[in-house]
Design brief:
The protein is an alpha+beta fold. It has two helices and six strands, in the order H-H-E-E-E-E-E-E. The chain starts with a helix and ends with a strand. Belongs to the beta-defensin family.
Length: 104
């Protein structure tokens, strides 16, 4: 029983020590884009919806007054990294490794 208690304590320590290990992937993506998780299905002003959080239980909202604008808001298209852009621009894409292009 002592061994089991020690293993559980070690597991709990690791879940707290390693950043993001205990969080769902959609929550990590939201936080990675400086987003906030709201309980409501719609985002309050000045936020815009940018996916989900907490295993699709909450809405990820990003601040539209900051420099973090979505690619489509800027008139671009999100493309995977293997596609070459003729002109790349700033903007958030739903997948972190994707890039925002005005022309492909």
């Amino acid at each position: 029983m002592k061994l089991f208690s020690c293993l559980m304590a070690l597991l709990l320590f690791l879940l707290q020590a390693v950043p993001g290990l205990g969080l769902p992937k959609d929550t990590l993506r939201c936080v990675g884009y400086h987003g906030f998780c709201f309980h409501s299905k719609s985002c309050p002003e000045p936020f815009a919806s940018f996916g989900t959080c907490s295993r699709r239980q909450k809405t990820c909202c990003i601040d539209t007054t900051s420099n973090f604008h979505t690619c489509q808001d800027e008139g671009g298209h999100c493309v995977p990294p293997e596609i070459n852009c003729l002109q790349e621009q700033a903007g958030l894409c739903p997948h972190r490794e994707w890039k925002c292009c005005t022309e492909v």
